[in-house]
Amino acid sequence: MRIGIIGTNFVSDAMVEAANVTHKFELVVACTRRLENAEAFALKHNIENFTNKHEDLLNYDLDAVYIALPNALHKDVALFFLEHKIAVFCEKPLASNISEVLEMMKASKKYNTLLMEGIIPVYSNGIQAVRKHLDRIGTVRNATFAMNQYSSRYDAYRAGEVLNAFKPELSNGSTMDIGVYPTSVAIALFGKPDHVLASAYKLESGVDGKGTILLQYADKDVIVTHSKISNQMLKPEISGEDGVIQMNHISLMNEVIVKENKKDAEVVYADYDTPQMVNELLAFEKAYQNQAIEAYPGAHQLSIDIHEVLTEARRQTNIVFPADQ
Question: Among 25, 124, 164, 208, which one is least packed by beta carbons within 10 Å?
């Protein structure tokens, strides 16, 4: 499958590593806004071609593109390729808000072209292990999904320099960059919540540095905490009447432990060696070969549900992007 890479940050490095493991992809061209960065990325990963204009990718007979640009740029670039019937694998969050997501879904259907949102834990073997063993802990009553990850750019912010990670014009911030992971896992496991209650700490730049999203269901609550300005040691867990399921990390889910009441804890899944994005890429390639427009039946609806919750959380906490206007 011939694919072009748009965006050359550390996430794209992980994508290349996983793509090479699958042996399903030919990495044809690298693209980012600064030509020197595109060239450096291409040289690093032995990619023959590079450019700083995504329109140039039409010259390479691509089957698909991988988009890892700032959040605010996802929609327009994805729409460009969907309109040219080139499959799109777009990093989370798919877009700035639910309106943009719906516009992208509409284009995917109109042009009968694959569109996939890349969310590592949703496609992980870890989440499959959680599903497999969920019955062992009985009726689920609570879940605590925390992802607090001190941003490598926050030191600069504290020193007075606002880098991309904290710019509202790029649709960044804790909800969109970090909160998307635990929110996605919760909705993938339990469905769309009945009610959403959100709070956040708003930075002077206009984005949220941290926040909490309470997802309320008829018989359970899921507490999502997210942060770009602090770290954590707490592990995510699901609490049922008959036991607990614990995961090592909500965005990776490469270890799952089950602890039934009055029994010893059991590691039911562990894999720290396989590159993080392998499952996502295999799902994308399979969907492309099957001429599908979504990675699996219901994948588009899951993205819609996720972004309805994220957009509502930002509405409640008054985190507004230019893309929302």
Answer: 164
